[in-house]
Specification:
The chain is α/β, with parallel strands linked by helices. It has six helices and eleven strands. It has a seven-stranded mixed sheet, with helices on both faces. The chain has a two-stranded antiparallel ribbon with strand order 6-9. Strand 2 (29-30) and strand 3 form a beta hairpin. It is globular, with a radius of gyration of 16 Å.
């Protein structure tokens, strides 16, 4: 098995993005699967072109993307991507798309195809906080969550994809009062555990992971 793991470059005025830093530090093999690491730009549409080229070149079985969710206190495994860009801030190319579909011919939403509940459980077994998330936002992280699902549906059938959000690194939270953060080592361990679950879980476990709001 081959797993393409992507991480974004820094954005929003931050000097570092824990997503790509975590991806860079992953083992080259996890659970017997070869890990292909890819940095992607925090830019709408360009991010998907880079991923599309990597899928064509490496032919991975799974595409797992990692993104920064500053303010979230735990590792959050996304359930769904929605077909809209509504950018609160400009992306790294200066684009600020508002209320436009990612793919005009795409459905309203896609559920990811990795075992999200098993991934959360595996991370928690390492004593690392994790939960299912039902929104990937409306910026480039959601753009990639939805966009990769669409690419696989129309161009690369049979492959699976998913998205994981991770918190700020401690150094990013120093000047942000009451801002949660997580160490780099802990985030690497969490993503490794999540990938192990992807490798060895054919059908997701059925445990509660929902939210009341």
């Amino acid at each position: 098995m081959k797993i393409l793991v992507t991480g974004f470059d820094p954005f929003g005025g931050e000097e570092v993005n824990p997503a790509i830093e975590t991806v860079k530090r992953l083992p080259d093999t996890i659970g017997g699967a070869k890990i292909i690491k890819l940095e992607i730009p925090t830019v709408c549409h360009q991010s998907l072109r880079v991923i599309d080229e990597a899928i064509a070149g490496y032919d991975p079985d799974v595409v797992l993307s990692v993104g920064q969710a500053g303010g979230r206190p735990d590792i959050t495994v996304e359930r769904v991507g929605i077909n809209v860009d509504d950018c609160r801030i400009p992306d790294n190319a200066g684009n600020q798309i508002v209320d436009e579909p990612i793919y005009a011919d795409g459905p309203a939403a896609y559920f990811v195809t990795v075992p999200i509940k098993a991934m959360v459980q595996r991370i928690r077994e390492r004593n690392i906080p994790a939960s299912v998330s039902n929104t990937a936002g409306t910026f480039v992280c959601n753009h990639v969550t939805y966009g990769v699902c669409h690419l696989l549906a129309v161009k690369y059938p049979g492959k699976r994809s998913g998205f994981i959000h991770i918190p700020f690194l401690p150094q990013q939270a120093v000047d942000k009062k009451n801002m949660p953060s997580m160490s780099q080592d802990m985030m690497v361990e969490a993503i490794t555990a999540a990938i192990e679950a992807v490798v060895d879980t054919e059908k997701d476990i059925k445990v509660t992971g929902g939210a009341t709001h």
